[in-house]
Fold:
Amino acid sequence: MEHPLNIPNGSAAVNISVIDSTRMRLPCSHLLTPEIPQHQYLDLPSFSFLIDHPVLQRKILFDLGLRKYFSSHPPAVHKFLAESGWELQVTKDIPEILKEGNLCPDDIEAVVFSHHHFDHLGDLSQFPSTTEVVVGPGFKDAYLPGWPVMDESSLVDDEWKKHTIREISFNDGPNSLSIGGFPAIDYFGDGSFFLLDAPGHTIGHLAALARVSLASTSAELQRDKFVFLGGDICHYPGVFRPTKSFPLHFEAQAAFYACPASFFLDVHPENNCETPYYRMPAHCTVDKESAERSIRKLCEFDGNEDILVIIGHDASLIGKLDFFPKTINGWKRGAKNAFQWAFLKDFCNGI
Ligand SMILES: [Zn+2]
Structure:
């Protein structure tokens, strides 16, 4: 039977682990609009994800978070940090964390970057030249070469030019795929991991869909389960929740968070439990319409009970899901509801 989001059948699943090394503190207005008075600051992680194909014994990373040694950022990043006032904390670089799971950079066949912003680029110099770099359509023309060839670049050119850089094309003629409206490619060729074309925030922004469990006879696994990696399609869960098809039961949530009954409705800028709390501001996009289209498609995945949506800066994960070296393959449908509304606690400051 055809999947409602046109996810093709697959013969394999991948293991996904979340790698958590970063915290960023910044004003909400930098990434969200309109203002919600009860919510002034964002405390965000910037995740990297290990995708491990256990049968093919192939491992890739999706994004690298932030690098630990800020001094090696290009001048454009230093300038941005000085002007923006973002506070950053990075405890470890990704290779240090991989080591805790008995892995090393040589084990990683490719790093897929959702986009070119410094909070996703990590430190590519710590990976061997044999690790391929995978980017979205238009990336090379728009963002390479890096610094110092291009003064304003957030990429360090010496780190990038030692790698083979593969720019994905989603126009693959008769073999082209579309999943939930996103043009897609089947990365391993067996339906276990798809890269999705999700532009708007930047040129060539990539998202991904991983099949993490194949259906079996157990009650929890009557259908395949998935994890959707949203990158920076948007930066906060309140940009795609709630929706008409996934409304907020505000009284139940108020009871859970011990707030007055109508609190989460009153906090909502439109007093509406069927539209998202926030929008992505135009200054966070290269193409506002494309960004809005990508967010609308993301909502469809979020409303599907077989898919767990995780965006790159999703603080809701912390304390709710396991981190590397454990996997998140065993996420439970019954726990998805609590996970999806965990961001509401951000509005409760001062109550
Ligand atoms: Zn980001």
Remarks:
- The chain has nine helices and 15 strands.
- The mean pLDDT is 95.
- Residues 288-302 form the longest helix (15 residues).
- Residues 15-241+276-348 form a domain with the Metallo-beta-lactamase; Chain A fold (CATH 3.60.15.10).
